[in-house]
Amino acid sequence: MSSQIFPSPNSSEFVMFSKLSTLFAGFYRLSAAGVVLKNKDSEQTLNMREINSVVEPQSVILITGGAGFLGQHIVKLIQERRPDVKEIRVFDIKPYLNQLDHPESKPIKSFVGDVRSLHDLLKAFDGVDTVIHTAGLISYGTFPDLEGMQQINVKGTKNVIEACLKQNVPRLVYTSTVDVVIGFEEIINGDEDKTTKPRKFLFPGYPQTKSEAEKCVLQANATPLSKGDGSVLQTVALRPNVMYGERDPHYVTNALANAKARGGVLTRVGRGDALFQQAYVGNVAWAHLKAEEAMRRQDSWVVYEGTVCDLTL
Fold first, then answer.
1. Residue 58's pLDDT is what?
2. Which residues are part of the catalytic machinery?
3. Relative to the CA of 203, which of 19, 41, 60, 181 has its CA 20 to 30 Å away?
4. What does the chain look like in DSSP terms, one character per residue?
5. What is the pLDDT of residue 307?
């Protein structure tokens, strides 16, 4: 299986992510030429070179769950494409190991801890400029770990927010899931503005806890940081679909195993005419960095809003 991050490293284009190609409540619009920054009456387009010239240098980015599937790809892309980053921190329940065999030009600090422990987070967040919060528990099946998901996905996210505020971390990018808007009703031509929390989630447990956590993240937007100089926390939530790619621990391998067990036939649920779009993990990782990069710019044209963005890449 060969997958490629779009665009290529030599391109000045941005990956187009979001069904509406919309980020930050309509103030950012991704296009093949760059990012269009909008205010009430005007537009201004910045290409990749211009954006790289305005981001602050020598930054520190921390990824919770950085030793996991998505986190590994985020670390890889920071190493390859973020010359402004001087240090990468990984916060996970297990030590970080480079499983993608990419070159490492930037130092990586691995913090072994639990998002349920505010003490662990405060230690790791000291001196951090941006937190990308991917850590979470996914539990399905006949007896899902409901309490574990509540503690890790909801309480853990609240702890991440509190640690950001106490340690004066100005940016938080949260990995949500498209499951937070999937219920038993059909979604036709849905987008971030049209889809809302369903009356009943399609799957119990996981979507509910991710929905609660996402709400906490968005409500925390514009909360003053503890240093009291007027600085605030800026937040955004991204909703990726099911991901595939290098080091995929579940999706493709389970699908192939199920097909093999059924004589080479892959079971399809429903009438057979529904469309389902998976997302390449490298593109999802790239979207996280583009969101972080957009939040980082100090530009009078930009209006930051705590909002969500659906990812189908």
1. 85
2. 206
3. 19
4. -----SS-TT-------STTSEETTTTEEE-SS-EEEE-SS-EEEE-HHHHHHHSPSSEEEEEETTTSHHHHHHHHHHHHH-TTEEEEEEEESS-----S-----S-EEEEE--TT-HHHHHHHHTT-SEEEE-------SSS--HHHHIIIIIIHHHHHHHHHHHTT--EEEEE--GGGG--SS--SS--TTT----SS-SSSSHHHHHHHHHHHHHHTTTEEPTT-SS-EEEEEEEEE-SEESTT-SSHHHHHHHHHHHTTS-----SSS------EEHHHHHHHHHHHHHHHH---TT-----EEEEE--
5. 56
What structural domains and CATH numbers belong to the chain?
22-248+279-311 (3.40.50.720)
Residue 140 is predicted with a pLDDT of 84
